[in-house]
Amino acid sequence: MTLSTPPIADTRPHQVTAHGVTIDDPWAWLKDPNYPDVGDKQVLAYLEAENAYFEAAMTPHRPLVDRLYEEMKARIKEDESSVPQKDGDWLYWTAFETGGQYRKWWRRPVAGGADELLLDEPALAEGKEYFRLGAFAVSNDGTKLAYAIDDNGSERFTIHVKDLATGALLPHTIPGMLSDIVWTADDSGFLYGLANKEWRTDNARLHRLGIDPAEDVELFHEDDEGYRVAVSETSDRRWIIIATGDHVTSEVRLYPADNPLAEPILVAPRQPGREYDVETHGDTLFIHTNDVNPMWRLVTAPISAPGEWTELIGPSAHFYMTGVECYRDFFIVEGREDGLDQVAVHRYDAPTVAERIAFPEASYAAGLGDNPEYDQTVLRIGYESMVTPGTVYDYDTATRTLTTLKVQEIPSGYDAAKYRTERLHIIARDGTQVPVSIVYPADFPKDGSRPLFLYAYGAYGHAIPPGFSTGRLSLLDRGFAYAIAHIRGGDDLGQQWYHDGKLDKRTNTFNDFVDVARGLIDGGWTSAGRIAIAGRSAGGELMGAVVNSDPELWGAVIADVPFVDVLNTMMDDSLPLTPGEWPEWGNPITDPAAFQLIRSYSPYDNVRAQDYPPLFISGGLNDPRVTYWEPAKWAAKLRATKTDSNILLLKTNMGAGHGGKSGRFESLREAAEEHAFVLWQLGVEA
Prior knowledge:
With 686 residues, the protein is an alpha+beta fold. Among the domains are: 1-76 and 567-686, 3-Layer(aba) Sandwich (Rossmann fold); 276-409, Prolyl oligopeptidase, N-terminal domain (Methylamine Dehydrogenase, Chain H). It has twelve helices and 38 strands. The strands form nine sheets. An eight-stranded mixed β-sheet has the order 31-32-34-33-35-36-37-38, with helices on both faces. Strands 3-4-5-6 form a four-stranded antiparallel β-sheet. A hairpin with a 4-residue loop joins β29 and β30 (401-407). The protein starts with 14 loop residues before the first strand and ends with a helix. One of its GO terms (molecular function) is serine-type endopeptidase activity. Its EC number is 3.4.21.83.
C-alpha cells in the first residue's frame, strides 16, 4: 500500500428514525453485531487496512519516533520504586526493574527482616499482548492477597487469591469482576462486584474463602440500569461501604466489617441530584455532600440516626470541597480554592479551623497520597507543578512541617530554570473567564511565531491538574509552549463549572476551548495553524467538535479513543455505558430536545465538506468505554467527505482497550508516535 491510497470504507444503506427525523448512517456496518466478540471479516479487514496505511505513513518518520522514544525513556528512572509506607506490621512499596514494563509489589516487616515479593506483574504479563492489574488488597492479618487482572483490555477482571505464607494460589478464581476488593474484618472473605452482560456493576457480593464463587452471597443489587455499585471501606475499617449512583445521585449503605451479613445502615435514601459520600469517626458519620450547594459542604450525623444531618463546615464561594477523610485525631478536607489544590487538617475539638498545608508555588497540583492507617500522625502528600517533578512529602501534623521524601528523578537531567509557568485567564465569548495553565521555554518569544500544544478534557467533572510531564519536555525543548485549558465540563473551579459544560450547556465546553485558542493567539503565544491539540475519550469528542467548527485554527490533531458517535451511542441503550451516561449528555431516546442538541454537536453527525487539519485518530478493539467503531466510522466519514489533502491516520490497537497498550514502555512509544506526528505536521525541526 502506498501513502497515496488510503483505505476507503464501503458504504451500505442504513437509516435510523427518531422523533420524526431520519438519519443516514452508511458506515453503521463497522459495528460488529456480535460485539464484544469482533469476528466480522470485513470489519477486521478494514481496520487492518487502516493500520497498514498508518504504518506506511509513519515509516519515513520512524527515526523521529525512535529519537523521541529514547528521549522519553531516558527521562524515566528504569528501576523506579515508590516510598515504602507502613500498614500494620509491614512496610509496602512497588518497584520496577531495569527494562521492566510492569511493577513488582514488595513488603518487609516493620520490625526488621527480609524483603518479600507479594506480586510479580512481569511474570503474570509474560507472553501477553496486554496486561493490567486492577484491584489489589492484602488481608487485614497480612496473610493473604486478593488481586484482579485483565489480559485483553476489556476491563473484565479475574480475581485470584494468594496465600502469602506459601505463595500458592487458592483454587477458586472469580471472572468478570469490575470493582475494588474489601476484606471482611476476620479475613474469612471479601466483598466485590461483578459486571453484568452489559458491563455494568449492578451488585455487591460476599465471597468466603474455600467456597465455590457460585455460592457467593449478593449483599446488594441495583435495579436502576443507569446506576453503578462500588465497594470500599471507612478509614477505621470498621465499616464496609456499598455505594450506588450515577453521575448526579448517590446512595450509601454501611455494613459492619465484622458481620457483613447484618442489616446494613442506609445513610440517606437517594434523592435525584443529591450526591454524598461517607466517612466515620467513632459513632459519628462525616458526610460530604452537595445537597445545598455545588461547592459541597460537610455535615455530621450519629450512626444511630444517620438522617439527622448537622452542618459542620458550610459551603464557600471560593473553596470547592472535593473530599473528606477521617483519622483518629483529626480529619482532612481536600478541595480547590479558585482552582488551586488545598489540603487542610481539622482537629475534632475545633473542627471549623482549617490548618492549610502551605505549598511553595503559585500554581501546582497536590493531594493526599497513600495513608492506610487510621492512627496516623504523619501524612503522605503528593505534589508537582508544570515545572516541578513529582515530589513525595511527609507532613507532620504536630509540627506542621513538610519533609521531602522523594523527588522524581530524571536520569537524563532536568533544569527547571529553563522553563517558566503561568496561570492565565482568557475571556470566553459569553464573558466567562477560563483558567489556562501554561509552561514554556524561558526564552519563549510571545510574537506568534512559535507552535503551541493545547490540551483539555472538559467532561464528567474531571479536572486536569497543572502537573508535571517528562514526555512534554520533548515539545518544550523544540520551542513549543504547552497549555492546559481548564474548560467548563470539568470541575476545576467547582461543581457548577462542571454543570455549566454538560447537558444543555455542553457547547460551552467546545466554545471555551476555541476561545482559549483564540485568546492565546491574541496574546502572541502562537498563531492560527500553529496549534496542535489533543484530547482523549470525552476529550476526543471535544477534538471532533472543534475540528468541525474551527478547522483553520489547528495544525495537528490527536484524538485518542474519541467519543465521536455521540448520538448513535446515546440512542443505543444496549451498550454498556449508555444508560449511566444520560445524566451527562441527555437521553435522546425519550427527550426530543436532547436528541436535537446532541445531533447539533455530535462530531460524527456534523462532518461536512470542508478542509480539515491533519488528524491522528486511535481506537482499541476491546475498548468497552468508547467502542472501536466510533473512531473507525468517524475516520471513514471524514475520508469520504473532507475537501483537503491533509493526512488522516487511524490506528486501532487490536489487542487493547480504552487505555491503549499496556506496559510503561509500550505506552511511551505510543506517546512518541503522537509527538512525532505533531512535529511532522507543524514542520518543526526534530
